[in-house]
Write a structure and sequence with these properties.
Blueprint lengths: L1 H13 L13 E7 L6 E11 L2 E5 L10 H8 L2 E6 L2 E9 L2 H14 L2 H9 L6 E6 L2
Antiparallel strand pairs: 1-2, 1-4, 2-3, 3-6, 4-5, 5-6
Length: 136
């Protein structure tokens, strides 16, 4: 997975935030996060949905039964940065719940049907939706 992510990160940075392959045309963001136990700096490429000037990301882990490590890291250290295109933006992370989550999640499944497949695979786990809100 690290080699896969490294290739996506390199392609993102070389092409002003655009990547090809299975993510071609999808809005992508590079999310910086700190390991909650290790303290190590990490970067994870993610598909996002724009939401009122913020970035919604989805802890789908391709439908795995557990949440991805980056989800736990972001909740433990919610002040971070994201790379969007050629910009780096300071953000604060918060998890969406109830109707707010539902509205964003339903739009994501409609825009990218693969997320509906992840939802089925992940059941009974509900896929978390995090909102990365610019702070500057």
């Amino acid at each position: 997975m690290n080699d896969w992510n490294t290739r996506i990160i390199e392609e993102f940075r070389q092409n002003e935030g655009r990547v090809g392959g299975p993510f071609e045309g999808a809005p992508m963001v590079l999310v910086h996060h700190r390991g909650r136990r290790s303290g190590a700096e990490r970067v994870s490429p993610m598909v996002y949905q724009p939401v009122d000037g913020a970035y919604a990301v989805f802890a789908s882990k391709a439908g795995a039964p557990t949440n991805p490590d980056w989800y736990h890291n972001l909740l433990a250290n919610p002040e971070t940065t994201v790379e969007v295109g050629t910009d780096t933006v300071a953000v604060r992370v918060r998890e969406l719940h109830d109707e707010e989550r539902s509205a964003v999640w339903e739009r994501q499944k409609a825009a990218s049907p693969g997320f509906a497949e992840y939802e089925v695979k992940a059941a009974p786990r509900q896929i978390p939706v995090l909102l990365l809100e610019p702070t500057g």
